[in-house]
Amino acid sequence: MPDLLLELRSEEIPARMQKKAAGDLRQLVTDALVDAGLTYEGAREYWTPRRLTLDLRGLTARSSDVREERKGPRTDAPEKAIAGFLRGAGLASVEEATVRSDPKKGDFYVAVIEKPGRAAEEVIAEAMPGIIRNFPWPKSMRWGEASAKPGALRWVRPLQSILCTFGPETEEPEVIAFEVDGIIAGNVTYGHRFHAPEAISVRRFGDYVEKLEKAKVVLDAERRKEIIRTDARNLAFAQGLELVEDEGLLDEVSGLVEWPVVLMGEFEEAYLAIPAEVIRLTIKENQKCFVLRPQGEADALANRFILTANIEASDGGAVIAHGNGKVVRARLSDALHFWKTDQANLPDLETLRSSAQRLDLDLAKPLDQRMAKLDALKVTFHAKLGTQGARVERIRRTAGELLSLLGSAQMDFDAIAGEVDRAALLAKADLTTEVVGEFPELQGLMGRKYALLQSEDDAVAAAIEEHYKPQGPSDDAPTAPVSIVVALADKLDMLVSFWSIDEKPTGSKDPYALRRAALGVVRLTLENDLRLPLKKAGVDADLLAFFHDRLKVYLRDKGARHDLIDAVISPEADDLLMIVKRVEALGALLDTEDGANLLTGARRAANILAAEEKKKTRISDTVDAALLSEEAEKVLLDAIVLAENNAADAVAREDFTAAMTALGALRGPVDRFFDDVLVNAEDEAVRANRLALLNRIRTSTQTVADFSRISG
Amino acid sequence: MTVHAGELPPHMQPTRSFQGLILALHNYWADYGCVVLQPYDMEVGAGTFHPATTLRSLGPRPWNAAYVQPSRRPTDGRYGENPNRLQHYYQYQVLLKPSPPDLQDLYLGSLKAIGIDPLLHDIRFVEDDWESPTLGAWGLGWECWCDGMEVSQFTYFQQVCGIECSPVAGELTYGLERLAMYVQGVDNVYDLNFNGRENGKVTYGDVFLQAEQEYSRHNFEFADTSVLLRHFDDAEAECRALLAVGAADDENSVHKCVLPAYDQCIKASHVFNLLDARGVISVTERQSYILRVRNLSKMCGEAYLLTDAGGFDSRL
């Protein structure tokens, strides 16, 4: 069966778009082939900075003939209906339709549509121009003379050539000739821009890959990555160093070269005074280079870096390494300047005076100055929510309120009011530092460093960094009390504020990462065993329901049964820790034999009651002890009263395990009741009283959970 | 024909002389067929503001031009103390309309002409989408890297003055000081050899250091902001007035006063940059100033399409 080789060669495609584009190409081409009734055995896409390639194997040479019959209206139907049928079936006149008879329907028209099979070449040639013209690039452009005409071809960067060959392995493949805006598909490609600029004729994928390799193009991005990774590690090892791995950077770099050549550059040791994260980001973001560390070091970096060139330079790469070193040095010199500037006084301190006074900032300290600047600049946080300065004031206030809500019973929250206030005040100050301006992802981390440099308390400095946490599922939630309070305040302020202006996440849209914020609150409270009455912290019913959803997602990820969560959550439950304790206690109860049997009994009671309620039987809330005749029902009532009291007491003490144990004691009496007592007694009053007793089973279990929501 | 670097006397070599570098680029692009223009005689932030780029990139007429443009970025002033940053520097600007199919190769040829061998140096095209909010312009292209250093900007103009480019022009902008520092192997811009002589050597510092110091003072400290604010308003008003008075009498006649109006747009843009450097424009105001300049450039661009050079044919 024939194979298809397709290459779209262009000027340099942005690295971040290559992989998806190659995948889109495979999808679009295979969809078009399948839609046309063709099948294929396998398809794989490749990409380099200058080409998207599709290797499609085992394509059927021809689609099969298709015969389709379409039923039409009766022969005596109104003319309009018949005309519509003919149009729909693509028939020119009624003569082209066949007439069939049916005993029930009478004579009616049938259109027999025969679609002869088509050659794969024809299908491809027809589909390709549309695929190329409508290619889903995130951003595309026009170019050259053709760009003046309406409907000019758009591509991510100018499209230079199209290669399209087709044929079985045993025969000479042929070129599938199609044309898009003046570019005619052929069997020619070009190798490396500088090493092999000559034209290369290609037959099929096998010789294509080989010839490209000879022309210094490694087609497979995975192989380019592997070359870079291995060479970088080896080069580092030889110098007693270790590569600081960065998969994202590796992906990007592999999309910047067709022929990776790994080299090492260096910079002055003096720059190692800059924080390692700043060095890493400076070298990564600006120069797309990897940093190195001495073998066995955890944090400290070496004054070397790894770069990936695209050529085998005539001098072995000395000039390239030297040149890159120069640029890295200039960048690090800027970074050093930023790092130092952030530790010095701001000019125009006078203009910050009023902000400093209002916020109680000490203008003798650099980070305080940065906070005063954030306030004085009146940078908008959100049009409806005011400035960053106003936001910091809210976070401070919320942090203070949280301290009293969390109370001294938990951790030593009343002893840290000063630290919490200071940390909340300085938490966002680093947003106006030069380093964070350059690398926004260092927010928090830089604040901590600058705080320590101006001798802030360790707990305050830590909280400045950690108040953004947890950022994602793999990020730890803070455990230090000051950090916890500021982190909670930051997130609750986000949530309450955005809820107040009705900016809630919808579907996949969550531009302010409010889901993450709510999940952060969930994790901060649960993982630190903290009780926080959310309603008192300003959370309204709608936001509380949002928290419940986040909590369910969180617990489900932890393996909790979601039916148990539903069974214990009520719309008013605003203490997340208590909800979880209930779930745990309920789970533990159901794991015991007593619990499982109690659940069965309670269900049986509920089913009987449900059947009665369907019949509109009135069921009393109270049991008349005088009407109880059998031992088993007397024992049950006593047991219910006792269990209910014990459970209620335990719930009041928030001892859910004890509450569950109390309920578990019902198991024996309930079982015995169902064994010994006939609910459907002949005496109407006795029967009603026994139904009331069943009802009590239901209501007593509800003190801890809604058993009807627990699934079998 | 192109003069090969090897045939030049040492003091004319692009790798030894700043002016030699400029002359080599002039030679290369003149040989290609560009009109080699002189700098525009107004203060601009980038070579793109030259009417030979902004306005000539509009309309259907072919246009190939190359020129050096002194560019002013008031906020980049460092009182002559930073070895890489200048508030006044040179851009070498090439505009080819329509963009030729071999524009990348032409660019690489120009690098060879100034002594950069692509089998010795690592030349890369790294994604960079260009946008000028004040000119209402955007395009797609790359930063061109030489051994990790950005030495040029390469853009296919898609829109200028808010108008779709038809056809698309290709723009090349070389950072001349950076390129010269690289090929001369100099770490401080002020150490660049300007005239290529070893005896009687004139450095970049000899030519520009004092100016950098004085203009930094001007930009950050001395420029009279109330005068500048007035200049901005005046330039804006004058631009609008000139466009109004030069407007075509009827649909068969051309606009009669676009270029002088566009000068006022350039002036407003530069005054805005100065005000920005003086720190008197708040974050919210900033946006509105940018918008005001963009409106001027848009009106100029639209009027330019109604002129002969803009492709308007009054006989139609």
Automatic annotation (TrEMBL), chain A:
Its EC number is 6.1.1.14. InterPro entries: DALR_anticod-bd, Gly-tRNA-synth_bsu, Gly-tRNA-synth_heterodimer. Transmembrane segments: none annotated. It catalyses: tRNA(Gly) + glycine + ATP = glycyl-tRNA(Gly) + AMP + diphosphate. GO terms for molecular function: arginine-tRNA ligase activity; ATP binding; glycine-tRNA ligase activity. The keyword Nucleotide-binding applies. GO terms for biological process: arginyl-tRNA aminoacylation; glycyl-tRNA aminoacylation. It is found in: Cytoplasm. SUPFAM superfamilies: HD-domain/PDEase-like (SSF109604). One of its GO terms (cellular component) is cytosol. Belongs to the class-II aminoacyl-tRNA synthetase family. This is Glycine--tRNA ligase beta subunit. The gene is glyS.
TrEMBL record, chain B:
GO terms for biological process: glycyl-tRNA aminoacylation. GO terms for molecular function: ATP binding; glycine-tRNA ligase activity. The keyword Nucleotide-binding applies. Its EC number is 6.1.1.14. It comes from the Bacteria. It is found in: Cytoplasm. The keyword Transcription regulation does not apply. It catalyses: tRNA(Gly) + glycine + ATP = glycyl-tRNA(Gly) + AMP + diphosphate. Pfam families: tRNA-synt_2e. One of its GO terms (cellular component) is cytosol. Keywords: Aminoacyl-tRNA synthetase, ATP-binding, Cytoplasm, Ligase, Nucleotide-binding, Protein biosynthesis. It is an enzyme of class 6 (ligase). PROSITE patterns: AA_TRNA_LIGASE_II_GLYAB (PS50861). Its main location: cytoplasm. Belongs to the class-II aminoacyl-tRNA synthetase family. Tetramer of two alpha and two beta subunits. This is Glycine--tRNA ligase alpha subunit. The lineage of its organism: Bacteria, Pseudomonadati, Pseudomonadota, Alphaproteobacteria, Hyphomicrobiales.
